[in-house]
Amino acid sequence: GSGVRVNMVEADLPLIMANKDSLQKILGNLMQNSLDAVPDGEDAVLDLRWRVGDESVTLLWADNGMGLDPDVADRLFDPYFSTKSKGTGLGLAICRNLADRMGGTIILRNRPDGTAERPGALAELTLPRMHARNSEG
What is the value of pTM for the model shown? Predict the structure, then answer.
C-alpha cells in the first residue's frame, strides 16, 4: 500500500501571519519527505498536532518513517544536501527560507516517542500569530 493516513488533532487556531503559497510549499515538502521516509509497501501515518503560544502557533508534523540519521540531521537544511538518490535536496533549505521570510522557524528531528527500529521524524513549523490591532493602538 502507498496510502497516507492522517491523524489530526482538532484545535481552535488563532490567525497567523503567513503567505499562502509559501505555506503550501512547505507543507507539500513535508508531505513528500514523509512519504519518501516510509519503506516501500507501507502506508505513511502522519500525526499532526498544534501548539498555540502567546506569540506563535506551531504545527507539529510527525511521521512513521525511518527518521533522521544523527550524522546528517544538522546538515538537512543545507542547500543541495540530500540523503535521497533523486532530487536536489533543496526542499528543506527552501522551507527554512520561506519560514524565515514569514517570521517563523522550522526544525526537524527524530520523534521523541519513536522506537529504535522506526524512529519517525518530527517537523516543527512555527509561525507568528497575527495580533488584533485594537482601537487603543
Answer: 0.85
3-class SS of residue 22: helix
State how far the Cα of 24 lies from the Cα of 90, in Å rounded to an integer: 16
The span from the CA of 116 to the CA of 52, in Å, is: 30
pLDDT at 131 over 90: no
Measure the CA–CA gap between 6 and 21, rounded to whole angstroms: 22
Residue type for position 86:
K
Question: 3-state DSSP call for residue 101?
Answer: helix
- pLDDT computed for residue 123 by the predictor: 95
The answer to whether residue 36 scores a pLDDT higher than 70 is yes
Residues 120/63, Cβ–Cβ less than 8 Å: yes
Cell of 27: 507543507
**How many Cβ atoms from other residues are within 10 Å of residue 99's Cβ?**
20
